[in-house]
Amino acid sequence: MKYNISEITTALNIKQKKGIHDSIITVLLTDSRKLSNPDETLFFALTTKTNDGHSFIDDLYTQGVRNFVVSSKYVVNEKHKDANFLEVKCTLKALQMLVAYHRHKFDIPVIGITGSNGKTIVKEWLYQLLHYDYNIVRSPRSYNSQTGVPLSVWQLDDTSTLGIFEAGISMPDEMEHLEPIIHPTIGVFTKLGEAHQENFSSMQQKCKEKLELFINSEVIIYNGDNPIISRCVEDMALSHKTFTWSRVNRESPLFISNIKSLEDKTIIKYSFLGFDTDLEIPFIDGASIENTISSLATLLYMRVLPEEIKVRMRTLERVAMRLDVRTGKNDCILINDSYNSDFNSIKIALEFQNQRKMDKPLKKTLILSDVFQSGLLPKTLYKKVAEVVEQNNVDKIIGIGHDISQFSSVFSMEKQFFNTTDDFIKSQVWKQFKNELILVKGARSFHFERIIALLEKRIHETVLEVDLDALVNNFNLYKSKIGRDAKLISMVKANGYGAGAVEIAKTLQYHRCGYLAVAVASEGVTLREAGITTPIIVLNPEVNGFEELFSSGLEPEIYNFRILDSFMKDAKRLGVTDYPIHIKLDTGMHRLGFVRDEIPQLIDILKKQKSLRVESVFSHLAASESWVFDKYTAKQVETFEELSTQIGQHFNYKIHRHILNSAGIERFPNNQFDMVRLGIGLYGVSSTGINGLQNVCTLKTTILQIKTLKSNDSVGYGRKEMLDHDARVATIRIGYADGLSRQFGNRKGKVLINGKYAPIVGSVCMDLCMVDVTDIDAKEGDEVIIFGENLSVVELAESIGTIPYEILTSVSPRVKRVYVKQ
Q1: What is the pLDDT of residue 722?
Q2: What's the confidence (pLDDT) of residue 320?
Q3: What DSSP string describes 2-51?
Q4: Interhelix angle for 343-355 vs 378-391, to 10°?
Q5: Tens of pLDDT along 399-423?
Q6: Strands (E), 329-462
C-alpha cells in the first residue's frame, strides 16, 4: 500500500504540517540496519531501555531517507531541512496508531493467534491449510511483539483476502495496544503455559491479558478442557462467542474422541455437528497434535469441509522456524532456507543475507524456486520479486522453475534459469561457485536440500548447532537487568565458549554490544580479521603479543607492574598516546590483579605517563553464584569500591568500573557500577535459574549401527562393560576427540534419542561411543542429542563432577558449527 505523507500526518493527529514535503511511503522502518528502499521509507525513531533510534537519523539521512517520526523532544539538525520530521509524544504509539489506521481499511477476515506456545506453528499451518482459498498475509516468522505486530499488519494490501497474525505479550497492559492493530475477527488461543509468568501475579492474570486480543472478535477458539482459560472467558463475559474443542466434553462443538499415534503418523478421530470422521497427520509428538487440533477447529469454523480438511492435513509440513548458516565448498557460505517460497519469506531471507557481515567480500548469489501462494498474476509477482532482490544488493540469481524462468527478463543482475532442480544439478553450474554468499530459497516441492548437499562442505557428521536467536534473547535478557547507561561486556574467549567466536561476535556486534572480551591477543586478531569493529578487551595479554594489540586496536588487561612497564615502553616507542587499558584489581579471587598495597605506586606510574589511558578498573568475584559466600562477595565489592574510587580520584577523566559476572548480574543488581561482564549466561547457563534464558548450543550426532547383544557380552575397549541383560546397543558418531570426555563411559553419561535417555555403555572411544537403546524405538541414522534443550549441559557436567564451561569449551574444532536463526 502507498500512503502520502499528508495522510499519515492526519492518521497520527499531527496538527503542525508546515514544512512537510510531499512524499510517498510504502515502507515502515524501525531498525536502521534493514534499510532497503530509502525513497519510500518512513523511519520511526523508537526509544527503548537499551537504544535510542534518534541516534541513527544522521546515518539514515546520509543513505537517502527523508521521512522520520521522532519524539517531540528531538532537535532537528539544520542540515536536514529537506526532510520530513513528524513530531509525536511516543514514536512506538505512533507506529501502532498508523498501522491500526491501515488495518481498519480492510473488511476481510483476520485470524488473531495468541498463547504461551504454538502461536507460530499454528499460524504457519493455517497458512498451509488455507492458502488454497485465500490470498493470505501473515506475520513473518515470530513477529508478535509491540513492534513486530504493526510491521506484520502493514503488509496488508488491496490483494489480501485473509490475514493471520500472532500476538505475544510479556508484561501486563501490552495486549490492549495490539488488539486495534490486528483487530481479529477470529481468535485462536493456542496454549497457556509458564512463559513470562514472572511478570504476572497469577496465571489467571496472564490469561485475561491474552484474551484482551479477542474482545471484539466474532469467535474465540480454544481448548475447553483448560479450566483457567474457560474461567477467564466466563469472567470477561466472552462465553457467548466461543468455539471450543475438548477430549472429555462431548457437548463441545469439536469433540476429539480418539488419538492414536503410530510409527510416523497420528490418526485423530473427532465429532463435529453430529458428524463422526477422522484425519491423519504426519506427526506423533504431543505439541504437534495439539496445534493440529487448534488448526482443525479453525478450519471447521471457517466452513472448510471435513473431507477437504482430511486431504489437506495429510500434506502438513513441519515448520522450519530458522534459517541456518553453513560452510560451503570453495570458500562459500550457505544460507539454507529451502523450506518455502512465498513473497514475504523471500523478503526476510534476503534481508538476512544482505545484513551478513563477512570477513572478506563475497559475491551475493540467490538460488530461488518458483514463488507460490502469492495471489498475484505471475508477471506482477516476479516484477515485485525482482525489485526486492535488487534492493538487497544480490549480484547473481539462479532461478529454478517453469514460472520464474518465463519471467527471467525482469531480473537485471547476472542470471541463469532452469526449469527443474534436476536440470540445475546436471548443468554442473554449482561447481563454479567460489567466494560467494549463497542464499538457497525454495519451496519444498523443489527439493533444494539436494542442492544444499552438493554445495555444503561436509567436515563431520557430528555438529554443534548454535541458535543465534537464543543468544540474542539471552543478551537482551541480561541487558534488561542493567541500567540504561551501563555497558555490557560479552565474553567470546575460548572460541566463544566453543560456539564459534567469529559468528557470535558478528551477532553481538549487530545487536550493538558495547564490548567484547577474549583471553589472548590471537583471539582478538581473528575477530578483527573477520570484520569485528566493536572494542575488544584482551584479558591475559603477554609481552610478546603487544605488537598485535596495537596493530589490531585491542585493549589489554593490565594486572601487574611487569605488564604495565612493558606495554608503556612499547606505546612510547610507537608514539602512541591515550591508548585504552583496563586495570585489574585483586579483591579476593587471588588470581591476577594489583593488590591494595600496590595501588599508590600504580597511581603514581599512571599519572606520570601520557601513552596510556585507563578505560576501566575491574575485579573478579570469586563465588558470586553461591549464597554461602555472600559475605565474602560483599567484602570483595566493598574493597573494589574503595580501591577503584581511590584510583579514579587522581584522573580528570571518567574511568569505568566493573566487577559483576553473569551470576553477579543475576544476584547483585545494586553493584553494576558502569559495566558488567556477561559470560556463561550468554550461552544459556544460569547459576540461579533465571527465567527466560534459552539454550544456545546443541551438540548432536547420529547412529551409525545397532547390534543386538546377549547378557554377559562385553562392550568396548578393555571389556569395561559386561552386559547384565540382552540389549540393543547403538554405536554413535562421537568420541573423546570430539570433546566427549572418557569420564562419561560405563553408564556415567547418557544421551537423548527420540525423546528418551540412552546410557553410554563401555568406554568412550576416540571417534565413537556406544549407547544402550534396548527400550528405545531407534534405528540407524537417527539423531542423537549429546546436550541441548532437553538434556542440559549443566546436567551433563554434574554427572561427571565438572562444570558447564568445561563441557562447552571441550567441543573439538573438527565438530562442524551450524548457525541457525529465525
Answers
A1: 92
A2: 63
A3: -EEHHHHHHHTT----TTPPP-EE-EEES-GGG---GGGEEEE--B-SS-
A4: 10
A5: 999 999 999 999 999 999 999 999 9
A6: 333-337, 363-369, 396-400, 414-418, 436-441
Instruction: Please tell me the distance from the alpha carbon of residue 650 to that of residue 585, in angstroms, as a whole number.
Output: 16
Annotated active-site residue 493? The verdict is: yes
Residue 271 has pLDDT above 80, yes or no: yes
What average pLDDT does the chain have? 92
Tell me if 751 sits within 8 A of 771, measured CB to CB.
yes
Calculated CA dihedral for residues 468, 469, 472, 477, nearest 10 degrees: -140
717 is catalytic: yes
pLDDT level of residue 460 (50, 70, 90 thresholds): low
The grid coordinates of residue 438 equal 549463497
Contact 282, 264 (CB under 8 A): yes
Q: Tell me which CATH code domain 106-314 carries.
A: 3.40.1190.10
DSSP summary character for residue 489: E
Equal fold, 3-97 vs 697-821? no
Task: Write out pLDDT tens, residues 47-79.
Answer: 887 678 999 999 999 999 999 999 988 888 888
For residue 192, give the amino acid letter: L
User: Which CATH superfamily does the domain covering 323-458 fall into?
Assistant: Mur ligase, C-terminal domain (3.90.190.20)
Task: Please pick, among 101, 510, 717, 805, the residue that the annotation labels catalytic.
Answer: 717
Residue 764: strand, helix, or coil: coil
Q: Which residue has the cell 575477530?
A: 527
Global pTM value: 0.68
Q: Which three cell numbers stand for residue 351?
A: 534481508
Round to the nearest angstrom and report the end-to-end CA distance of the chain.
26
Can you give the pLDDT at residue 375? 67
Using CA atoms in the order 701, 706, 712, 717, what is the torsion angle rounded to 10 degrees? -50
Strands, DSSP E only, in 357-484? 363-369, 396-400, 414-418, 436-441, 463-467
Grid cell for residue 751: 544421551
Q: What contacts 724, CB < 8 A, 6 or more positions away?
A: 711, 712
Q: How many CB atoms lie within 10 A of CB 184?
A: 25
Show the cell assigned to 815. Answer: 565438530
Domains of the chain, by residue range, sit at 3-97, 106-314, 323-458, 465-683, 697-821
β-bridge partners, 678: 490
Task: With H, G, I as helix, E, B as strand and everything else as coil, classify residue 820.
Answer: strand
Q: Which of 815, 633, 821, 626 has its CA nearest to residue 738?
A: 815
Q: How many CA atoms lie within 13 A of 271 on its CB side?
A: 13
* Burial (Cβ within 10 Å: 0-12, 13-18, ≥19) of residue 594: buried
User: Which residue in 123, 347, 441, 493 is the catalytic one?
Assistant: 493
> Cα dist. 819→516, 592, 798 in Å?
20, 35, 27
Return the CATH number of 3-97, one of 1.10.8.80, 3.30.1780.10, 3.40.1390.10, 3.40.50.20: 3.40.1390.10
In whole angstroms, what separates CA 697 from the centre of its chain? Answer: 12
Q: How far apart are CA 121 and CA 449, in angstroms?
A: 22
**CA-wise closest residue to 184 among 139, 130, 140:** 139
Residues 6+ apart with CB under 8 A from 441: 337, 338, 341, 345, 346, 349, 366, 367, 368, 369, 448
Mean pLDDT (whole number) for 477-485: 87
Helix (H) or strand (E) run with residue 100 in it: helix 91-103
Cα dihedral 255, 256, 257, 263, rounded to 10, equals: 170
Q: Which residues contact 703 (CB under 8 A, 6 or more apart)?
A: 730, 731, 732, 733, 753, 773, 778, 779, 780, 781, 782, 784
**CATH class for the region spanning 465-683:** alpha beta
Does CATH number 2.40.37.10 belong to domain 697-821?
yes
Q: What is the pLDDT of residues 567-605, one digit of tens each?
A: 999 999 999 999 999 999 999 999 999 999 999 999 999
How many angstroms separate the CA atoms of 334 and 375, rounded?
30
